[in-house]
Design a protein that fits this description.
Blueprint: H1 2-25, E1 29-38, H2 42-46, H3 52-55, E2 69-73, E3 82-86, E4 94-103, E5 107-116, E6 120-131, E7 134-144, H4 153-176
């Protein structure tokens, strides 16, 4: 019994030490990015990122809830093009994403407002750069994190990595077919 209590005490101590280190080591700003090369000219890739409707053709989070309610507004493919989602599935939650900047065949920048399961805000960019006859697509996300979220950063990096990899692979398959 004493051995089990000692093991539990050591585990608890390690968790507390990790939490303190994470809160001190990680800043409030969170940045994630992933890139992939697509065998197509940037003009062809642009067709799939230049509006919220085309973005959602390959957006990995759309599969979280096939019954998710989507509402589009603004002019498609222009600044202000926006969609809002609402799902009963907490993994998908509710929020809106709006195009804030477009540089044709080069960059799309959006702002995301999360309403559920947590309140938050983030910006995202998709940047296209030529790589020979191919196109390098770099997808980023930036947000501010509350202190308690810093503890989750390694798990968040893992989840973002999986989602961004899936999304970029979806985009690659869509553009290259």
């Amino acid at each position: 019994m004493k051995t089990i209590l000692k093991i539990l005490g050591v585990i608890l101590l390690l968790i507390v030490v990790y939490a303190v280190i994470a809160m001190l080591a990680f800043g409030n700003k969170y940045h994630y990015e992933k890139s992939m090369v697509i065998k197509a000219p940037k003009e062809k890739v642009w067709q799939q990122i230049s509006s919220m409707k085309t973005f959602n053709r390959w957006n990995p989070w759309m599969k979280l809830d096939p019954n998710m309610k989507l509402a589009y507004s603004g002019n498609e493919g222009e600044i202000g093009d926006k969609y809002c989602w609402d799902s009963k599935n907490d993994d998908a939650g509710a929020g809106c994403q709006e195009i804030k900047e477009l540089v044709p065949n080069q960059k799309q920048k959006t702002e995301m407002i999360f309403k559920r399961p947590f309140d938050g805000q983030a910006t995202s960019e998709i940047v296209l750069s030529p790589e020979g006859n191919d196109t390098k697509v770099t997808w980023t996300m930036d947000t501010e994190q509350e202190t308690w979220m810093k503890i989750m950063r390694p798990m968040m990096d893992y989840q973002m990595g999986k989602s961004y990899e899936e999304g970029l692979t979806n985009l690659k398959n869509l553009v290259e077919k």
